[in-house]
Amino acid sequence: MAEAVKPSPTPEPATAPTATPIVSGFAQVLREFWQVPLLIVGVGGVATALWYARSHAPVHDFDAALAQAEELIASDDLDHATYILSDVVERNLEKAPKEIEPRLRALQADAIARDLRTSAKPTKAEDERLVNAYDRAQTAGWTMTPPQVVAYSQSLVRVGRAAEALAAVSEGASAQDAEALRQKVRRDALASVLQGASESGKQTPKALLAAIEQFRTDPNLSASDAAWAAARAAEQRIASDSCEVAADRLLVDLSRIEGTPAARGIASPQELAELYQLRGEALRRLNQLNKARDEFQHAATIVQAGTPVAGAIDVGLGRTNLALGDYEGAEKVFDAAVLAQHAGTLGHEARLGRAEARSHLGKFADAEIDFAVLLESAHRDELSKGTQHSMQRVLVERARDALAEKRWLESAELARVAVQLGEDGEHRADALVVLGTAARAEADRILKTPTGAASALADLVPDDRIAVNRLLKEAGDAFVDFSGTPACRQASDDTYVESLRNAAACYDIAGLHEEALAQCQLLLEALQPEDPDRADVFIRIAAIREAEGAFGEAIVNYKRAIDLRRDGSEYTTRAIVPLARVLAADGRADEATSHLQSVLSGDFGLKPEAVEYFNALDLLAKIQFSKARFTESAELLHEAIVRCPDPTRLGELRFRLGEAYIGVSRGALKESQVADATAATKARLARDAHARLADARRIFEQAIQAFEEQGSDLDGLSRDMQRESYMRRADCAFDMGDFEDAIALYEAVDRKYPEHPSSMVALIQIVNACDSLADATRAETAHRRAQLRLTQLSDESFFGGAGIMSRESWELWLRNHPPSRSRVASAPAEVEP
User: In this structure, are residues 538 and 551 in contact, taking their beta carbons and an 8 Å threshold?
Assistant: First the structure.
């Protein structure tokens, strides 16, 4: 039978995919999006539930609430524990079974004890609160556990109730536990006594050592307690400078403690490290530095890092390295100690040691950073008195070293920090002296003079002038402050007077006249009426008044200095020339001349090589020149040049001598033109005038050479005299009729000072010289050069003292004075040889 053929399956029509509605898709996305916040909310709900469970204990399930509070106390969550105990349990205590109250009171006391445990130094009120809380618990019927007895007894000891603490220990534990607790209470009581004595200073070291030895007589003392007592005894001996006894006893104690029978326990490495550290400290103070270093290094191998004992070891080892001169080793140790961030005094001592080591190594910037950090701590009252004292000592020592090595700025900075610590005493007084000395020395360095001079301030650039004035004022203030310290006032020598004198000098140079005069007045009060040093004070007062233009007061004080000792004393010779100077400035030139002639004649015992003798020559030459007594002035200047103690003044003196010779020449020329003079007299005077001009020209040459030798060190006035020397030299040649020489010399002026109006004068004089030589071509050329130069000169060159005439005046003059009519000077009449 033929198999039936199955028809081919008819394919189902393809169904178009159904489009997802937009709203439905957004809802799905929204549901997925909210899964994350819902997770967050869920976590938050769990956290909230936990918080609620902690702070909302079952109201009437007292056992559960107290159990929860106990758990919170153990985890240091004291706020929530206190809330449960006070607001949940105690508030509903009347509804609770009777056995709940004792447990409640005990837990309340435990919470206080837990809080007190975190206090570095509990107050008496805090301890009394704890004692009262445990007393209340015991009254309610609670029997304290050993940990509670320890906390209770410690607070009893700290409030001065040691006997009650011992009684509590005896009653509150088994015999074995009671003995251990009894020893702890006795140790706590002794520690409390030592702490109180340290703070009050009432107990003597002898009495404290007796108390420690009494504690050590206990035959059942554990090795740990024995180590603790040995450490406390060593501290007392070191503090009372019995370092040799401390070192010897510690050696015995270490041997005994390390050999303690096992039944009494063993001292921990930390406790042994403290003993080795204390022995190292005792040896360091005995200057047995190598032995001390060995002890410190051994202690460092067994100590627990980061503990106060570890910090004390670092500080002791670092100080030992400093004393041995191992500054790199000291810096390394102190650096590690600083990085360990030890709290309180140890941290400050470590930073101070590092600063000292760095300053020895020349790392001054790093050292200053450490000192600045310590200074900030001092301003916040965080430094102990001992650390402040040590810091001042270190700063003063380093400042003195810097002062000796002429590192004055560094010395002043170190001394300044020492002063800012504000600790009154020997170190602060020393710091003030170093600060004043260093600041004055740095000011003198900038002034470039050995002892400073007020006149030098004007020569400084503004920034240097400001720096010098600041330094001098700081120095003066430091000396004034030092003069008020007990160390200065109680000194048996002239310390007080010298401090006032130094302050007055600094203020005087800085131009702080009122401050200087105030110190001078104190000096006069401090010195005896017949003390010759009063003359020095009168001279300073006179100089200040002279600078102020109060010539009358200056004269009075100079005369006081002279009258104090007239027998040729130092002060008389110092005052006589300044007196003459002020008299001349006050219009009393004849009196001034009389005094100066007395000096030069030897009436005051001055030798010709004395500086005052030179000053008298110099001043008298100026007075004679001002009176047109040029011959006398020239004679005085000749001698002054020979006796001049300062080579930098030779250019000025020769310039003035040249000016005097020009004056002599003009005087002779003027006299030769008198009508009734004979022909021979006129000829002689003309020859004299010509000869003096030749002398003047030669002297101006010498002045130019002297100025050139100083180079760039010339001040403004000297530069003006140098330029005028060039001009005067050419003028002398012109007035002598040496026109070719004059032209060459005026050309030199034009080349050297092309940007100064003096070059205009030089070019005009070249025109005049060419006219005198009948050289019209060169005269015309020089005239055009003058016109061109006028256009090249800046406007600034015509202002101030440099401008001889304004630009407009020069233009007018050049137009009105063409060559052959432009002479501004005339050659002298023909003279006979």
Answer: no
